[in-house]
Structures are given as C-alpha cells and as structure tokens.
Amino acid sequence: MLRHGESIWNKENRFTGWTDVDLTEKGEEEAARAGDLLKESGFQFDMAYTSYLKRAVKTLDKVLDRMNEDWIPVRKSWRLNEKHYGALQGLNKSETAEEYGEEQVRLWRRSYDVAPPALGEDDPRNPVFDVRYREVPASELPRTESLKDTVRRILPYWKETIFPSLEASDQLLVVAHGNSLRGIVKYLKRLSDEEIVKLNLPTGIPYVFEFDDHLKLRKDYFLGDPEEIRQLMDAVANQGKKQTLVAEEAAMPGKEQ
C-alpha cells in the first residue's frame, strides 16, 4: 500500500478530501523514490488499484514508470477516495484550529466516528455535480464522512475486488490516501477504534502487508529508514495544531530548529 506523494494542499496544510488537487514537485519526487525503493526491494506487481483523484493516480503512474511496469492492469474506484471532509475542504488546518480549537479539529481529523460539517446539497463541491461520479447513486456519494463512514465505504471494494485477486496474484499495489488506507489497515490488523486514530500514514512511503498461503496476514512493515518514517508520521499528526503551538514546540530545548 502507498499513500500518494505530497499534494499542493498537503503542502499548504489544507483539508483536501475529495478535492482533486495535483502533486507538488516534492510529491512527484516522493513517488519516484517509492518506485525506486520498491524496484530495489524486488517487488513485481501483477495488478494495481487506485482512486479517482489525480494525486493518487499520478503517484501510481510515477511508481510504475520507475519500476518499468507501466503495462500492468490498473483499476480505479471512487471507493478508494480520501475521507470526505465536507465543508472543511479547502480550509487551512492550523487556522481552523485557531478558530474552533485544537480539540475540535482533532475530532474532525482523527476521531473514529465524528464527521466534519456536511456540504449543502447545492454546494458546487458536492460530488453529485462531478462527472466522474455520474454512475454512482447520489445516495452513496458523501457530503461529509467520519473515518467510520470511510471504512464502511472502502471495505466492500477491498473484500469483493482487491483481496480476492490475491488468490491469483503474488503482489498487488494499492495507491490511495491516508484515511482510505487507514480503513484497510484497521480491518487487516483488527485494530480498535482507539488504535486506528493514532496511526498516521506519511506520504510516499510503501507499507507492505505479507500474507501466508491461506491469505492470513503474516506481517506488515514500512520500507525505508525507521527514524525518518517516525519523523514523517509525527509531522502528519502535527498538521492540525495551531501555528503558534507548533512554533513553540519547535523552539523548546531539545527540539531541532
């Protein structure tokens, strides 16, 4: 599994959700590095899956290009889209924490069952107006989502489409988003609601899941330097803090400047 490379709104610390923003130059470099790392580690994929959002699609394209596996079948599904952040989409996370408080933003970002304020039915950001979802029943398209809602959306696709293909494939690649992948991780590792909210997936870091011959999860691990990955996870966790608090923490003794 791979979370897409850094997007423009990741860089600007904005709630993105289903908004279709592009990768930054750094995001493209992260995708290329992930492809190189997977190739060097001996991975050869039979099939790839991704969402309808370009930051994931372009990450996948870059990874496959670096691996010389552009030819493998790719399947896209709206069910792998990021958690829908409703009316928060486009807002700066730190500024939102200033306005509503860090605890409220933490609940919107990281709680399991609290959803952000929903989009109105006539809001132009409502996915019912997006041509790419024209074949999806309007009742299934979210106006906002909690992580619980996101898991409920993703798991049918995982159980009915992706996971069964492991019976015929040795290695699959899923390139998606922080929260959509967390939903799959929760299911595979049988994590509690409390445990999954503490998992922060960094951009562009391959997360490997190995199964035995009976498709039972055997082990899981990130590819890359453990200390670097820990720092990247911490950076994801800090995105919803007030700018002043982040600055104060950075200035504390023992903190890198």
Secondary structure layout:
Elements lengths: L1 E2 L4 H4 L13 H16 L6 E4 L3 H14 L6 E3 L16 H8 L1 H9 L36 H16 L9 E5 L1 H12 L3 H4 L10 E5 L5 E6 L3 H12 L5 H9 L6
Parallel strand pairs: 1-4, 2-3, 2-4
Antiparallel strand pairs: 5-6
Name the features.
two-stranded antiparallel ribbon; 10% strand; 6 strands; 40% helix
Folded structure, characterized:
The chain is an alpha/beta fold and 257 residues long. It has helices spanning 8-11, 25-40, 54-67, 93-100, 102-110, 147-162, 178-189, 193-196, 226-237, 243-251, and strands at residues 2-3, 47-50, 74-76, 172-176, 207-211, 217-222. The longest helix has 16 residues, at 25-40. It starts with a strand and ends in a 6-residue tail after the last helix.
- In what range is the share of β-strand residues? 5-15%
Shape estimate = globular
Number of helices: 10
Largest sheet: spatial strand order:
1-4-2-3
In brief:
With 257 residues, this protein is of the alpha/beta class.
